[in-house]
Amino acid sequence: MKVYNLACDLEHHFEGWFASEDDFLSQQASGTLCCPVCDSAHVSRLPSAPRIGGKVSSEELVAVEPSQSIALSNADHGQLERQIQATFMKAMRELVGKSEDVGAAFAEEARKIHYKESPERSIRGQTSADEVMALREEGIDVLALPEMPVLKNTLQ
Predict the structure, then answer these.
(1) β-pairing, 100-103 with 123-125?
(2) DSSP secondary structure string, 32-57?
(3) Are β-strands 100-103 and 13-18 bridged in parallel, bridged antiparallel, or unpaired?
(4) pTM score > 0.85 for this model?
(5) pLDDT tens sequence across 104-141
(6) What is the spatial order of strands in the sheet that 2-8 belongs to?
(7) Is the pLDDT of residue 32 over 60?
(8) Can you give the pLDDT at residue 79?
(9) How far apart, in whole angstroms, are the C-alpha atoms of residue 43 and residue 24?
(10) What is the largest CA-CA distance in the chain?
């Protein structure tokens, strides 16, 4: 099993697991290897060092006060970026798992829930920016997120 650090042309970093290097090259050449964030097929392998040993212990993580400034090396920045992406994807998986996809009927369904015409529940779907503004003007809380190809499929 080969585990590679990968990145798309928009610099989204992710990990790929392949049966062999030939498997990776074959998927890359055929365009079946895509970024899980933006669905770009322009994916390249990043240099990586072998990792030997265990995990970072909680004692090694340093709490930082908000008033402190932090200087990061390129290596630290890359690790921080991966942690942020992982946290974001975990939150998106939870959001998708705990909400009902109502598709293009989002604005209509949000109004029904707000005016007690439909059972209260978490929903997600698509609507226009004008509809989002109208919903907010009616006092309906809406969180607009960019549409991501990874959310159209089952998140693993």
Answers:
(1) parallel
(2) ----TTT--S-EEEPP-----S-PPP
(3) unpaired
(4) no
(5) 999 999 999 999 999 999 998 889 989 999 999 999 98
(6) 13-18, 2-8, 43-45
(7) yes
(8) 73
(9) 11
(10) 57
DSSP state of 60: G
What type of residue is 120?
Answer: E
Residue 102: exposure state from Cβ atoms within 10 A (0-12, 13-18, ≥19): buried
- Cα 148 to its chain centre, rounded Å, is 8
In the numeric block, the tokens 């998708």 are attached to 96
Mean pLDDT in residue range 48-69: 53
| Res 77: pLDDT | 65
CA–CA distance, 24 with 47 (Å, rounded to integer): 15
Any alpha helices (H) in 13-123, and if so which ranges?
21-30, 74-97, 106-114
Using the predicted structure, report yes or no on whether residue 14 has a pLDDT greater than 80. Answer: yes
Cα–Cα dist 139/132, whole Å:
11
